[in-house]
Amino acid sequence: MRLIGLRCVMKALMGLVLVGVFCGGVAPAYAGSGSAVIFMYHRFGDERFPSTNIRMEQFKEHLAYLEENGYRVAPLDEVVATLKRGDTFAEKTVALTMDDAYASVYENAWPLLKEKGWPFTVFVATDGVDRRFSDYMTWDQMRELKAEGVQFANHSASHPHMIDRADGETEAQWLARIRADVLKAQARLDKELGPCPKMLAYPYGEYNSKVAALVAELGFLAFGQHSGAAGPTTDFKAVPRFPMSEAYGTIRSFRTKARTLAFPIVSMTPWDPETTDRQPELEVSVGEGDAIWNELSCFVSGQGRVEVRWVVPGKTFKVRSEKPLPPGRHKYNLTVPAGDRRAYHWFSRQWIVREE
């Protein structure tokens, strides 16, 4: 039995939307309420790697919570089409994604999702499959899943740190290498599995303005690994997803994230997450909505809550870490309660701090 009985009809109706080239802009302003929460997993029941693994008892709790509380698990291409149209989502819309194409997706996650008839998308790092690494699915296994309605998309070929240049590499050479890597992965997916949508998940969730511009130029809508829900003002160059792991996959945490609403960002300065500033300042302008802005909070990874300074009350604010951030990846987590106080608007701003 295929995953979703009506999915073929839906895919046909949306075909013109999905085969077109994705732009790299920001969706229109809010037309109403409704967000989609996208969850990201890597490994299932593989306790060798707790930072990227979800224990099977945790995953079963996640699925049970979604089912028992009336959530709709939507195909990711449908979520993308809704974002592209600027439409709102039905209440309690979520999507499930898996990065890398590990074998545990096929062995452990797929039987549970098949039983429920729920769709999901696997972002494939194709070199690992081509080299027949034991931790990865095979192309035959992926063809089997695709025949059942599972979707596959681009996670690069070599899974590089896309923002890093090789020694002696010029900017032009670096960007040409990233371009070739992305296009190689798409060619392998299309050859082995048939045409796959032009969606890309950044390896490690890392990108900067040049990488994002390149990916958009190639016609891809891109996904990060920064927390938050997707909604009408989501940036198509960096769609948020909630990463799931043993540490962050408790049912209490999952419930909170499943109820999250999109943060109504109109603009963000600087846009580029790569910086040499050890205390980067972020300025955010927000749109209208139901957010209770006088209860806006910002939490900096490793530092806790920091001050929010309003430039224009209810319109524009600034946040900055109180202490210098060491080189590496960091996040400013922005949360504000919705008007009914049953959920939070949530957005996580990633910083990649470099040595000067």
TrEMBL record:
One GO BP annotation of this record: carbohydrate metabolic process
Keywords: Hydrolase, Signal
Alphabetized InterPro entries for the sequence: Glyco_hydro/deAcase_b/a-brl, Ig-like_dom, NODB_dom, Polysacch_Deacetylase
Pfam families referenced in this protein's UniProt entry, alphabetically: Polysacc_deac_1
SUPFAM superfamilies: Glycoside hydrolase/deacetylase
PROSITE patterns: IG_LIKE, NODB
GO cellular component: extracellular region
Protein name: Glycoside hydrolase/deacetylase beta/alpha-barrel
Source species: Desulfoluna butyratoxydans
Source species taxonomy: Bacteria, Pseudomonadati, Thermodesulfobacteriota, Desulfobacteria, Desulfobacterales
